[in-house]
Write a structure and sequence with these properties.
This protein is α/β, with parallel strands linked by helices. Among the domains are: about 240 residues, no CATH class; about 110 residues, no CATH class. Helix content is about 45%, strand content about 15%. The protein contains 23 helices and 17 strands. Strand 5, helix 8 and strand 6 form a beta-alpha-beta unit. Helix 10 packs parallel to helix 16. The chain is globular and about 90 Å long. It starts with a helix and ends with a helix.
């Protein structure tokens, strides 16, 4: 096949992925593919990311006036005084950014409303000064923060071309960098999932699969003369054909960490690791399979070739994983679990029409499952199910998963436990492979510092500690949120017990299915619900008729304060720098006399302090009197710098008859 045809096929494939992103969410697609590259290309006062006139900027072969029409520009930047966006900067320096690519689920069946967008930005660090690299990193951070304010989560990875080519790369821009845990696996993911946003395309797509490293280098060197192409239009990201087993351990730790926030995606990646490790001396990467389908279809049998529009890296990988697990002899086989995780990944952002309103939508019947959704989401879901059905990738009990918005809490908990059980079991199976590898005397590629970082994140989630609020091994915590929760107070064995349950109006009648948690401590129960994403700002709280000793207004006000004080923790966003330091309290909430006990001096005032630390853990401590409380405050201030003056300590006192007397005691 002539090289021009391979180029045409790659460009057609790239366009098809962008079209899929537009079909998934047109507003996000415009932002990801037009607005963001513009901000990387220009450096103008009044535009997000500008802080220094000498900040390097600019993408080669990028025309901003064509990429972002004036109407779209003024929609996003109505107050901007920036003009002449057609040039990249005030200097005459060549643009430093050689290529901008997405990496991940954008433009695939796995893209959802919640999908973030990771950008792999290729440039040569040696072309910039250290100050220039720092300024460009700061520019990227500022754009990320501005985008988050608009509801778009993006991450930039500044990647050195020379390091990438040598497979020794690290990122200069984002705390989510995998450090030493991933190298070739990350490069493999880039090749098999990326969309070229702007700049040069990787020459890898023109190199036949299966070459040795020496053959690859010779092929690239011969391309200009042999194929009469201008290599200035391409970037060489280097050779990749197989994975050393030395990288698997770090990859396992990395995916275990990613699973804390995005379990379904991590299941697929964990299964991919097991596929790679299964009885193979050389671990062939899936990126070569994608390249064959896109630019080297003649290497495949006619029945294995696909139309460009049908090439979806997530679907293809899932198909391969299902086939792999169908071959195993264990019972039950894991192939349907892979189907279910892919399907649940596509359902992450679907909500029934009534959710968030005053009246919840009724539970659907199997024949009307998609009608509970908003019309636009219903059409998208029908397209997803039809597409996955054609690939034999729908889970066996698809109707059960379609009814996910109406699952009981126990159903959600069971599904989450199954996900975490799979991750743990697969980690153990992979450890067996790795043990034999270690016995051969070879070392892992992950360094000790990154083992400490990733291990500490796992400890944050799984480890039990005194006074700690435990995380549940659940689905993504956003998928655990409840539309309605009923609180009940009951006297059991002479002691108060507090129950949180789903409200019966959702169609459930079995008390065991309705039950979420029982606690002897109301504030601990509420903190646990908030920390695990079960109780959110959209949850409707109710009291059972038998719970008249509880004040619903006080409970709602406390919950609002908790949600404001403690935003839901994203484990993947906890910085490596923080995890390498000793843990420190970063936020605290003091709840004073919530039960409204009589104020008789300072001896018997019940006080609870809820806190979060730099590792992402919640703790709850009770104090019997104001003296102990004030001693705790001194420790928070002197050891952790937490106080009302630092605006990281909030004090909540519910309205009560002896409010002034209580406040006077606190102020002494």
């Amino acid at each position: 096949m002539p090289v021009k045809d391979r180029l045409d096929r790659y460009l057609a494939y790239n366009r098809s992925r962008i079209v899929k992103a537009v079909q998934s969410n047109e507003e996000k697609a415009v932002f990801f593919f037009k607005v963001v590259p513009l901000l990387l290309h220009v450096n103008r006062p009044g535009l997000p990311g500008y802080s220094d006139p000498f900040c390097p900027c600019g993408i080669v072969r990028f025309n901003p006036s064509q990429a972002l029409p004036p109407a779209t520009f003024h929609h996003y930047f109505p107050q901007s005084l920036a003009e002449n966006i057609s040039d990249s900067a005030s200097s005459n320096q060549p643009p430093p950014i050689q290529s901008v690519k997405t990496i991940g689920s954008i433009g695939t069946i796995a893209q959802t409303e919640k999908s973030d967008c990771d950008y792999w930005i290729s440039l040569r660090f040696a072309d910039l000064t250290e100050q220039g690299l720092t300024l460009l990193g700061q520019k990227c951070k500022a754009i990320e923060e501005w985008a988050m304010g608009l509801g778009h989560e993006i991450h930039f990875f500044l990647m050195d071309l020379d390091q990438t080519r040598d497979n020794s790369f690290t990122s200069r821009a984002d705390e989510e960098s995998a450090g030493s845990a991933l190298k070739l696996l990350l490069k493999d993911e880039l090749f098999r999932t990326h969309i070229l946003v702007a700049g040069k395309m990787p020459v890898w797509w023109l190199c036949p699969p299966g070459l040795s490293e020496a053959e690859y280098q010779s092929f690239v060197q011969a391309l200009p003369e042999k194929e009469k192409i201008n290599m200035e239009s391409f970037i060489d990201l280097g050779y990749i054909s197989n994975l050393p087993k030395s990288e698997i351990f770090g990859a396992c730790l990395w995916q275990m960490n990613k699973a804390l926030d995005s379990p379904f995606k991590s299941v697929l990646k964990f299964a991919y690791l097991e596929l790679l490790m299964n009885d193979q001396q050389t671990l062939n990467l899936f990126s070569d399979r994608i390249k064959q389908l896109v630019t080297f279809p003649e290497q495949l049998k006619s029945e294995d070739r696909l139309p460009i529009d049908d090439i979806d890296p997530y679907l293809l990988l899932a198909k391969e994983l299902v086939a792999f697990y169908q071959r195993e002899e264990t019972h039950p086989k894991r192939d349907d679990f892979i189907r279910a995780c892919l399907f649940m990944k596509t359902l992450e952002d679907f909500k029934p029409q009534g959710e968030g309103g005053d009246v919840p939508a009724p539970p659907p019947t199997p024949s009307t499952a998609t009608t509970i959704l908003h019309p636009q989401q219903s059409q998208r879901l029908q397209a997803i199910t039809a597409r996955m059905g054609r690939w034999d990738l729908l889970p066996q009990d698809v109707k059960h998963y379609l009814n996910f918005p109406f699952w009981s809490y126990q159903d959600r908990l069971s599904a989450g436990a199954r996900v975490h059980q799979y991750l743990g079991d697969t980690y153990q199976r992979l450890s067996g492979y790795l043990q034999s590898f270690s016995q051969e005397g070879r070392k892992q590629t992950i360094n000790e510092e990154d083992i400490a970082i990733l291990g500490r994140k796992l400890s944050t989630f799984y480890a039990k500690k005194p006074h700690k609020i435990e995380y549940i091994p659940s689905l993504s915590r956003q998928m655990m949120s409840q539309a309605d929760i009923t609180l009940r107070l009951a006297l059991i064995d002479g002691k108060d017990s507090y129950f949180a349950s789903q409200t019966e109006g959702n169609g459930l009648s079995d008390f065991k299915q309705l039950m979420i948690k029982r606690e002897s401590h109301l504030i601990r129960l509420l903190t646990w619900l908030v920390a695990n994403g079960i109780l959110t700002s959209k949850t409707r709280l109710r009291l059972s008729p038998q719970s008249n000793r509880l004040n619903l207004d006080d409970v709602k006000q406390l919950v609002r304060t908790m949600l404001t004080t403690f935003p839901l923790i994203q484990f993947t966003h906890i910085s490596a720098n923080e995890l390498l330091k000793s843990e420190t309290v970063i936020q605290a909430l003091a709840v004073i006399n919530f039960a409204k006990a009589p104020v008789r001096g300072a001896k018997n005032i019940p006080i609870t302090i809820i806190s979060t630390n730099s590792y992402g853990e919640y703790f709850l401590h009770d104090y019997e009197n104001i003296a102990l409380y004030k001693a705790a405050l001194r420790t928070l201030l002197t050891k952790h710098g937490v106080s009302r003056w630092q605006k990281n300590l909030t004090v909540f006192i519910p309205p009560q008859a002896e409010q002034h007397a209580l406040q006077a005691l606190l102020d002494q």
